[in-house]
Amino acid sequence: MLPRFGLKYAVVLLVLLASAVVGAYGFSTLELAPMNSSTRTILLSLAGLAALTVLTRKPPVILCLGLLACMSIACGQTWPVIVVAVFALSATVLGRWMLRQQASADWSVHLLVGAGTFGTLTGLAAYLPINYPWLYGTLLSLPLLLGHTHVSAIGRELLRHIQATRSAQTPLQTGLDVMVCGFACLYVLVAFMPEVGHDALAMHLFVPSHLAQRHQWSFDASTYVWAVMPMLADWIYSIVYMLAGETAARLGNSAFTLLLAWQIRNVTLWAGGSATSARWASLIFLSTPLAFAESSSLHVESAWTAFMLAGTLAILKVSSFTPDPSERLSQLLLAGVLLGFAMATKAVTLSVLPVLLAILLLQYRAWAIQGLGKTLLLGSAGLLLAGATPYVSAGYLTGNPVFPFFNAIFHSPLWPNINFEPPAAFGTGMTWDTLYRMVFKSSQFIEGRVGAAGFQWLLLPTAAVAVLLSGNKKALGILLVGVGAMFVTFHSTAYLRYVFPSFALFSVILALPFSDARIFPRNLAIVAGTLLILTNTRFIQAATYYGDINPSALLSQAGREAYLLERLPIRKMVDTVNTLNSGYQPVAVFAPPLMAGLRGDALYASWYNLKWKNEFDGARTPAALTQRLRQHQVNWLLIDLKSLPQAPLERLLAVSTSYARLDDLDLRKLDVTRYELLLNPELSSLEGWSLTSSSSYDASRKILTVNVKTPATQRVEVTPGLSYINSVSARCAATPTAGRVQANWMDDQGDFITASIETFDCTRQWETHEMNVVAPANATSVIIYASGHTDTPVAFRSLSFR
């Protein structure tokens, strides 16, 4: 409590005045950017919801749900919306059953426990080729069928809210609800847009699409350096992707951001805030450009922060603020599970856990009670079961449990014995002007523009001082966690995405004093809050390059295709590759690593795949490069013609033939015709060939006439694991019959290993028949056959093995 005109109150006003001066200077340096599509979307949503709210007596939240349902139908995204809603309902029912009322928690905690469990099961299933839509349909259906009583109760509760009026709300609360719902409309609409984000297409959408197409994940860190990193959020996205595709995954990400707004509301109320201040906290968070950036593309920070925030609140509840001792222990157990899920989502959790442990130790008297031993054991087990799996897997597969980080300590052979370093562009540590630079020099902290961090940071010093002087111990605990997490993380790398949980916590800290009429006059707080929301809204796209709202891309498939063709043609090129690469062989990618949806492995000549990069860099001649590509069974190459240095580009062009091109992207096929292994493939003479019957060769016409009993053969050396093309040009010698394309593989002792055979029906016309083969691991040579499939003769005029 800060008495008006007291010393403490004067200190707060002095800090506010200093912040206003600093902010005014910062704003004087800004150049106002043009109005963006996201800002226009918010304004249109607000106008529509405000009109509906005035014309009806329904709560804005219910009106918003109706509006979102109409938008999903108009955009043709009804099925993804249904799938995400079913996932949320199923996860909530599962989480409620798992907790069994062990700890007092609302539906959001139940949902997180259930979602984390579903994601963990998916991560385990990813090791096996069992990942099909029917499996995940069954997985989501079971909790709904077994918990039908709870599902019915949720349905009745929702119906009650739909039938309710907003009579209990004040005009300010109604206005804040309208604004929160306006941002919710933006977050859902942006999820309906096609994915164009770098991290999403390189990893977070790549993993679900790979799982859906190949039915398991390879966990091959030598091909993708991030393949064994914690990926709980990606496994959660994979569930809905398996059932409803890309939009469902993006919508799941946006749903986590909206869930965070609800969690922030709960934390604010727990800390002593009013219903109004809880709405302000949620609105401050949703208006933050970084929060929108997390939903504009498929990222994992929203899901990670949801687990972190719920776990943090559970830690804070393990204190004297929770009067029931048994409830404190239950919250301790719950914290272990939720923070375990956070660990399994993002390794940055490991740097924040010491801060939470310090908070826990500071209040040890509250939980050091009878029954602690069992709770600590169960909580630790929950933490390990929920969070340790990816680290154990990484340690087993690579020798480094946090691969590729700290490899100077763990010495995994898959990465140099140096520590993996974050981008140097973002720096480390905190200085006296960090908050100012975060707002007005945001590019030092994220791939964004001025204002990316949101302008609420200008008010944070005032709010923090008010909390420190007010004596609100709950708010003080929230502040300490937020500052501690930010300080520890920035010590490693000053990157805003890694401190997203602090953004959520500081939204609570901002709302508590500024919405308290006993500290700040109500009208002043409303003006400050309104200006903050308007400013954040004006800069809503400052933290992302992917947040455009394009009506044509939303409303029609043709508009969606045109948008991708103009905005990111590489996505269309992936579809072309999939059409041509029928064998799903690896594709060598010399372009940005945006290959989500590729039906096969992508070989990146970058830090994603150091082994392949070194092989590519070491292939200094076209012949050496061809050998490297064939060793990896590559037939197709995707090249960005403007991104490669001249020398390697010339080598790539020399060994390949262009098949399709979009702008600077060139899809090329490896040209193996010049690397013929057979001697006399055109049968100009019999040198190299072994004939069962000398009369089978017509020297004047250069034709072999053979059948199954009188084949012609030639033996050539091969390299194990290489792909080859075995082709023949043949026709019927007299009557219709069947012929063979045949290769017999031999080991270094000359013993037979196996045969690769494909039959064909011959005609009276010369036709080419082709077979793609891969040399077995122990093969050193192959015998190529010119042979019929029956006793009826077949004529051959050429054979090829390349």
TrEMBL record:
The keyword Glycoprotein appears for this protein: no
Organism: Pseudomonas marvdashtae
Domain ArnT-like N-terminal as annotated: residue spans: 244-373
GO terms, biological process: protein O-linked glycosylation
Main location: membrane
Transmembrane segments: 6-27, 62-95, 107-128, 134-154, 175-193, 224-244, 333-364, 376-397, 450-469, 476-492
InterPro entries registered for this protein in UniProt: ArnT-like_N (IPR003342)
Listed GO MF terms: mannosyltransferase activity
Top-level taxon of the source organism: Bacteria
Bilayer topology term: Multi-pass membrane protein
The name this protein goes by in its record: Phospholipid carrier-dependent glycosyltransferase
UniProtKB keywords: Glycosyltransferase, Membrane, Transferase, Transmembrane, Transmembrane helix
Keyword set includes Transmembrane: yes
A single Gene Ontology CC term: endomembrane system
Compartments, record wording: Endomembrane system
Lineage: Bacteria, Pseudomonadati, Pseudomonadota, Gammaproteobacteria, Pseudomonadales
